[in-house]
Write a structure and sequence with these properties.
- Helix 1 crosses helix 3.
- The chain starts with a helix and ends with a helix.
- The protein is globular and about 50 Å long.
- With about 160 residues, it is an all-alpha fold.
- The chain has 8 helices and no strands.
């Protein structure tokens, strides 16, 4: 597992960033954020499939590869969004604050996953948990759709 996650995962992430950056040139900021966000949400379903498949090395490689590839693509678009939100006079400060704010989910919400699957607490089965991660992504995509006009203005700058 460690080899797959670290070695193949980093290769897939770098590939995702490069692919995401290249696709952003064609799609623009909003369409990239939406497409890559959808791909990231669907990528979580690969882990649901892995949980349903049980011990299956090829399914593990596929799930890790899909998740890291789509995360890299999403990261490319998200960094572009943060950069577009910054005023050129205060770019360093604003980017630092926005990128720090973006880590709140990872730092504070991520650890709750352990409680969600722990039988002493919520006790979700792994397939159910990963399906829930897919569902949790949907409000963010809805918010993105709602903010489309603002994001398209940023893209024209």
């Amino acid at each position: 597992m460690g080899y797959v996650n670290k070695v193949m995962g980093i290769i897939a992430t770098i590939g995702g960033v490069l692919l995401g950056g290249a696709l952003m040139m064609r799609l623009g900021l909003y369409r990239s954020l939406m497409a890559f966000g959808i791909l990231q949400a669907v990528g979580n379903l690969a882990y649901m499939g892995l949980a349903l498949a049980g011990t299956n090395y090829p399914a593990l490689v596929l799930a890790v590869g899909i998740e890291n590839l789509t995360s890299g693509m999403g990261t490319a678009a998200f960094v572009a969004l943060l950069m577009a939100l910054c005023d050129h006079r205060y770019t360093a400060t604003q980017y630092a604050l926005l990128s720090a704010l973006a880590t709140i989910g990872r730092v504070y919400v991520g650890p709750a996953a352990g409680y969600a699957t722990d039988p002493r607490y919520l006790g979700l089965a792994w397939p159910t948990f990963f399906f829930c991660t897919f569902l949790v992504a949907l409000p963010g995509l809805a918010l993105l759709a709602w903010k489309r006009p603002s994001i398209e203005v940023l893209d024209r700058r």
